Sequence to fold (660 residues):
Amino acid sequence: MRGMMGKVLIVDLGSGTMEEKPVSAEIYGAYLGGVGLAARLLTDMIPAGADPLGPDNVLAFMSGLLTGTGSMMTGRWTVCCKSPLTGGWGDANCGGTLSPEIKRCGWDGILFRGVSPTPVAFAADENGPRLVDASASWGLDAVEAEDRVKAAWTGKKKPAVAAIGPAAEKLSLISGISNDGGRYAARSGVGAVMGSKRLKSIALAGSRPIPCADPARVKEISKAFAQKVAKINLPGIMTGAFMPLMGRMLGMKTVVPIDGILASAILKKWGTIYNNTAGIVNGDSPVRNWGGSVKDFGPAKYRRLNPDRIRERETRKYHCYSCVVGCGGVCDATGTGAKGEHMHKPEYETCCAFGALALSDDLDSIFLCNDICNRSGLDTISAGSVVAFAFECYERGILTAADTGGLELRWGDGKGVAALLAMIAERRGIGDVLADGVALAAKRIGKGSDEIAVHAGGQEPGMHDGRMDPMMAVAFAADPTPGRHTISAGVYYNVSHLWEFVSWAPPVTRPYAKAREYLPSEEEALKSVAGACVKQLLDATGSCLFALTIGLQHWRLFDWLNAATGEGRSPDEWMEAGRRIQTARAAFGAREKAADAGSDRARDYRLANPRIYGLPPLERGPLAGKTVPLEAMVGLYRKEFGWDEKSGAPSRSTMERLGV
Fold:
């Protein structure tokens, strides 16, 4: 298949040996690249029941099928493994600059097995791949480690670097992997797996050409898309003060189809932080450990998180590879307590996790928490969630000052949030109890704390409330990587215009009552399935979720795929690959759940903490009285996929039909 390099590199960290492994045309055709190729290869390479932090687990850094072909917003990479956090399939997705360098070094993925006896770093350039001693870097934060690699580099061009921080070295199950000084593959505990292998960093500087079947056609499609995005800008009068009004409009009882191209203008101006205040007023943002609402975090508080206040600190825009939107930014961190002068701006997820979730409106504290996470390697979603969990435990008397070393955990205390986070990053005191996420923390603490430990399948949910978007709740509970906010949601689906291309995707062409989304139905299940399939297609091709939300009628994914590969497939056929990948991820999880049953690695968590789907329902705010019939909706979703409605394990007939 054109667009791919034809092989992967397998590195055995225990022996120090490396082997290039060709990938067959049949496997590429069925699983594409990225997460799909990893799902196929890792199912064979990781033995059932493997210890996620042991030598048998495999950590795969994967590029995407479209990365480097000249297509737009297709520069993301995925890291895959058996998750130590959930016990099932684990993957985490990241932007930055690493993805094209994987392919320029000659591979579609770099797969690490075994455990190194001492800290090592992996490097590849015109001199080939190699492992080098990293003992001097072990203990450095992720930003320092990356800077050191780049400063010592002697190759012809500067490398793209991915590195872990001390939290990952200390095997925190909520740690991730950094790229470009603070862009994160954050979820599934992938940082802990990298730390367990004593792999401090990877540095890549390749020069090999990336094949493309029809580069002229790819360029033509890319030029048209770039011109559309360039023309869409918000009027100067549109400031952050308007975001609560926009949030109220999005939270109305009637859903009105909109053109996603407008999203590009919002993302260009603010990035994800536009939702700092929009999400509070409509219920999208979880508050007070998922037990509160805007009534607890009202205008006097949420206005302090106005995205313009963060944008004022922005010193330059940040674009991932091949991106024309540039939703990222680098900010001046002076006066916030951060270790360095500059940092990647805190994203919405971070602002909510260390803001409304803990009732804190202290923006400087949020900047500091962002820096602590970026440097130590903690996932801001999970870290903020475990902080809020601890605050509620303290409020209820489950934790006391004796447990916290004298630190008082009071709602709204931003300095207390940052102080507890530092303890988690260092595994110090109560931080050691909390450093592996809320599910394991609740197990260690006991005293009924599991009732307020908000997670889905062992992983903390993203900062978007499924009680507002039931498709999001289904994704939290039913995806093979549970708790993920980037899989499928009504808000993504309704702007994607997927139905214009995929024959079986339910159309959303006219206004409809929001109440319809709360009813279990085949139509809603099909929308969830379509959203999950196209997301796997995105992760297999290296594509950005925000590109999908701009709309497929503008961001021409299927046209790029055919031009880059020369395949000539229909959108339905490309989506079938997404269905196959999703089923392969589910099959891996089902296999591991069965193999781990009865062991200390068993993760037999319920679908989701009832707070996520409204049991009991909130009594105040925009989501008052809202309950999602989650079990029924998840059952229909699994039925549409051909999986067991109770366990989520794919049926034998489904696997045979898809060739999984």
Observations:
- The mean pLDDT is 96.
- The longest strand covers residues 7-12.
- The chain has 27 helices and 17 strands.
